[in-house]
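idk why but the lab printer keeps eating my pages so im just putting this in chat instead. protein + zinc ion:
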Amino acid sequence: MVKLTFYGGVNEIGGNKILLEDGEQRLFLDFGFPYKRHKQFYEEYLKPRGGAGLLDPLAIGLLPPLEGIYRDDLETPGLWEQFRDVPFYRKLDHIDGVLLTHAHLDHSGHIAFFKDSIPVYSTAVTAFIAKAVQDSGKADFDQQVCYFDRKGPGKPAGWKQEALLTTDKKQQRQFCLADAELKALSEDAVKFWLKSPGQKPLISCSLTGHSGCSFNLRCFPVDHSIPGACAWGIETGSGWVIYSGDLRLHGKREESTRKFIEEAGKLRPRALILEGTNVDRTTNVFERDVYDNGLKTIKGAAGLVIADFPPRDVSRLLTFLQVARDTGRKLAILPRDAYLLKTMRLLEPEIPDIAQEGSIAIYQDTIASKSPNVWVQNLCKEYGSKMILAEDVRSAEDKFILCFSFWDINELPSLRPKPGSLYVFSSSEPHDEEQEIDFRRLHKWLEHFKMRGVGLPVEKKKNGEKSEWEIPEEERGLHASGHACGPDLLEVARGIKPEVLIPIHSEHPDFYVENLRSSGLDVVLPTVGGTIEV
Ligand SMILES: [Zn+2]
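predcted complex ->
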């Protein structure tokens, strides 16, 4: 019997943590950051205490109480004595690895807690994006996926508060690439992998192929809102177990998802663990519609255009790049996007070369540009004339599409866009109260600077009831979701035709029970911390 235990992603979107056990062999399928539960306890200024290591996430239930698999440099003295009688406590002497489906933190974030001896299996693009995101961002200790600051001397006995200060010695994790010939990686790609963003060597980093895994694995590329996404197949004593990760059938790489359905179906799998983010939707906006609608909206716009789309969605960035070319504007991207594009190009030569691409500029944040980080200084050296500042945009507003998100909106005082400038919203609507508050703020900013929002959800207040957010009818079609809609998900399930289907990453897993009743598939709903035997 193969056991599947679900520690996250049950009745919630994201935070997937699934333990697969076949006798003494064990794998985790993703090990994501549990945003929903995290937000119930924490906010920007109330965070788990980095200095408390594993204590806070274990005590709050963000991390399953599994002794033996987490970094011992994060163990405070006597830690495990406190957790040995909590529900779901187990001691695991080892796990063979974690199969990571893509580099979104709700799937990858908590890998930060694993011992560095536990290898991460992923596509090359996922590994490189995980590093690029960490290099160019401010990853807290609970989101350091690719490398981390080792606290103290690495032994619980040596744990001291002062030893928890960040050092510049960063320990890299072992990534095993599922889809790349290591020999085929360019020298620049290897160099990128081996150095910190400050260009210091990382400690004992190793990049290997995936053949060393004790399981026979299959890695299937799929389409999602981040490049490099894959689904996994694991051959077990009970037959093949397939894990979808996040996917869709309406993006630029839909063919890869179709191929996954076909190939996984051929394995006659015992079980399919399938995502269900958008089970409630009946249709999709396609990525190519976003281009058409974006072009229509931006063509003839006067003044500045700001495009707000999800970070790391390279497909969307390229969609807006095409709109920029076709409207005679330049796409002004932030340094972190430039860093990501440059990283992606190390693996995929069809990604545009910023140096050669006439329609790309790199916008530097007004205040940060005064003392840039080393990695931004390096971008400046490499792309000199492409770097622009607020004054460059101000003097030629109608020549740019600026790629900002809500979190960059505090740049507007430096930009002071002309009244009537456009804010194109190409991202998802609010999903919780905190995001609703952010949307009210965004509306306030646009109102204050007399900018016109397009595609932006507007609040519909209902008497005494929860307010609803809706995009005005005539402004829809500027965002394509990263997730398949209900009918497409049923197509995936029916096409792969497992004996057992286990829904995950969904607030409405019942959808599968209701819609697959007569199809011969046995739908089994997971519970938090519960085990399903297949
Ligand atoms: Zn995702």
